[in-house]
From TrEMBL, chain A:
This is Cell division protein FtsK. Keywords: ATP-binding, Cell cycle, Cell division, Nucleotide-binding. Residues 39-219 form the FtsK domain. GO terms for molecular function: ATP binding; DNA binding. PROSITE patterns: FTSK. ATP binds at G55, E56, P57, G58, S59, G60, K61, S62. It comes from Micromonospora radicis.
From TrEMBL, chain B:
Residues 251-310 are annotated as: Disordered. It comes from Micromonospora radicis. The chain crosses the membrane at residues 36-57, 63-83, 90-110, 116-133. This is Uncharacterized protein. Keywords: Membrane, Transmembrane, Transmembrane helix.
Amino acid sequence: MDLTDTLELPTNPGPSDTVPVGAGLSIFDPVFLGIDEFGQPVYLPMIYRNILIGGEPGSGKSSLLNTIVGHAALCADVRLCLLDGKQVELGLWEDACDVFVGPDIHHAIRTLYRVQTVMDNRYTFLKARRRRKIGPDDLFGQILVACDEIAYFSATAGDEKTQKLFAALLRDIVARGRAVGIIVAAATQRPSSDIIPTSLRDLFAWRFAGRCTTDVSSDIVLGHGWAARGFSSNTVDPNNHGAGYLIAEGGIPALVKAAYLTDTDIIRVADYATWTRRHTGTLTTDNASPARAAA
Amino acid sequence: MRKSSSRSPFGWSNHNGTVTVIEAPIARSYRRRAVIAFWVTSAVVGLLAATVASHYLHPILGALAGVAFGVVLGAVVFALIVAWPVLRVFWHWLPEILLGLAVVYGWVALMQSTPLWLSLLIVALVVGVPAAIGPVRRRVMSWAWCLIVRHRLRLCFAAFIATNRHGSLPLILLARPTPAGERVWVWLRPGLSLRDLEADGQVQKLAVACWANEVRVMRASRKYAALVRVDITRREPLAHTIVSPLPDYVPADIPSNAPTSPGMPPVGLDLPEVPDQPVTVPADAPRPRKPRNPTTDTASPSGFDPSDYA
Ligand SMILES: Nc1ncnc2c1ncn2[C@@H]1O[C@H](COP(=O)(O)OP(=O)(O)OP(=O)(O)O)[C@@H](O)[C@H]1O
Ligand SMILES: [Mg+2]
C-alpha cells in the first residue's frame, strides 16, 4: 500500500527486490476477529489483555490463535514467542517468530523464564523512569506469547513438578505481563482444573468458547453461570467451525464467527513477516540474550 | 375464569376468545383502582374547575359547574380504567387491526374503481412480486415474525413469568429483526427483575413458546435495570466462512525468497518404523539443567496420562 514512499528510503539495504515495508499494523490496533451474529465486524483489542480459547477438538481454536498471531506478525514491534505442543498449528510461523517451542517442556520452561526475566527488567526500567505502563512507540516492543494446547505442557508432558512450574510461570506472565506489553493468548480444549489450575484460568480476561460438548464445558471456558443464562457454546452447530461465544469488552458473551486464514494465506503472511523482520533486523532467533531488553 | 358483573358491561369478563382471562382478584383490584381514580379525579378537577369558573360566573354557579365537570371527567377516567383490559387488547393487536382494515378497505376501494380483471391483476402483483423476490419476501417475513414474537412473549409473561401483585406484566417495547431472528426490548415492571427471566429453565421455556432455537435475555441499558433485551435466535447466521483480511496487508510483489526450514527425511512416520521400546522412568532421561530452579530436577514421575489431554 505504501510501497511508493518507502522506495526512497535509503536506510534499508534492500538488494535487487522491493524494499520490505511494515504492514502498517500495530498491536495497539484491535485485531479483526470475525463477525458477530448481527453481521457486524468484531474487533478485539489485544494490548494489555490476555485471551483464553477453549472448545472441543476441531472447533477452530487454532485457527483463531493463528488469526491473532497473524495480526501480531504483521506488527513490526511485536515479537512472537510461540509454544505449540502439536507443532503444526503454529508451525507455519516458525521462521517469523523469535522463539518456537515444540513438544519440549524444558524448552517451554526455559522460554517462559526468559519472558519472565524480560518482564522483570521492563518493570525495573519503568520504575526507574517513574512510569506505570508502556505505550505505543515505546522504547521496546511488545511480546506475544501464544500457546496452543496448554494441556500438553501443563498436564501431559514431563512430570508433575515440571507441569506445575510451567503453570506457575505462565500464571505469573499472565498476571504481571499486561502493563509491559506481554500478551498471552492460550488455547486448550477443556480448561478444567485438572488441566490448568483455576488460578491461572481465571486470570484471562477474555474468553472464546468454540463449540463445547456440554454446557459445563462451555461454562468452564466462559465462566460459571453463563450456560444457565442462555450462553452455552454447546448450542453451536458442530459443523460450524470457528463459531463460538466471545467475552470481550461488553462483558457479555457474543456469538462470533472467527475469520479464517487458509494455510496458503498463513504461509504468505508468515513469509512476508519473516522477510520484513529479517530486513529490519527485528528477528533474533534463539540466541538472543534476555538482558537485551533491560537496556 | 369468567366473571359476570351487572355493574360493568365489559372489563373483566371475556367477550371474545382473545381477551386474556382476568382473575377475580385482579378484576377486583381494577374496580377498586377505578373507584379511587374516580374520586381523586373528581375532587381535584372539580376543585380546579370550580376555582377557575368562579372567576367568570357567580361563585355558587361556578362551584356547581366545577363539580359537574369534575364528575364527568372522573366518570371518563373510571370508564377508561374499567375498560382498560379490553382496550389493552386492542392496543396489543393494533398493527394487525390496522393491517386488516387497510386490506379490507383497499380491496373494496379497488373493486369499486377498477374492473374485476384489473383489480385481480393488481392484487396478484401486490402479493406476487414480493413473494417472488427473495430478499423482499424475507424482509416481510422477518417483520411478520416480529409481530408474532411480541404476542408469544406476552403469552409467556402472562403464563409463567412471575408477575407482581397487581398482575401487571412487563411492557413489551419494540421488536426488530436481526440476521439470526428477532430482538425485543422489554421494560420490566416493579416486582420483576432480570433474574426472574433468567431463573432456571425460563429462557428455554421462552424459546419453546416463541418457536425458536434459543432465547437469550440480557440487560439493554447500563442505566436502567428495567430495560431488558430478549434475543430470539431461529437461524444460524454464521454458517459461511469469513475470510481474514490479513493477507491483504501483504504486498502482491514480495519475492519468493522466503526461507524454508531444513527438510526432514520421512523416517519414523509409520508404526513399523518405530520400535517397541520399554518405557523408561522419566527421571532417567537426561535433561538440561534448568537455571534458577534446581528443585524441579528432583523427579517425581507421574507419567503420561492421556485422559488429561482431552
Ligand atoms: N473460522 C473458521 N471458518 C471456517 N472454517 C474453520 C474456521 N476455523 C476452523 N475451521 C475449520 O475447522 C478445522 C479445525 O480447526 P482447528 O484446527 O482450528 O481446530 P482446533 O480447535 O484447533 O482443533 P484441535 O483441538 O484438534 O487442535 C480447520 O481445519 C478448518 O477447516
Ligand atoms: Mg488446534
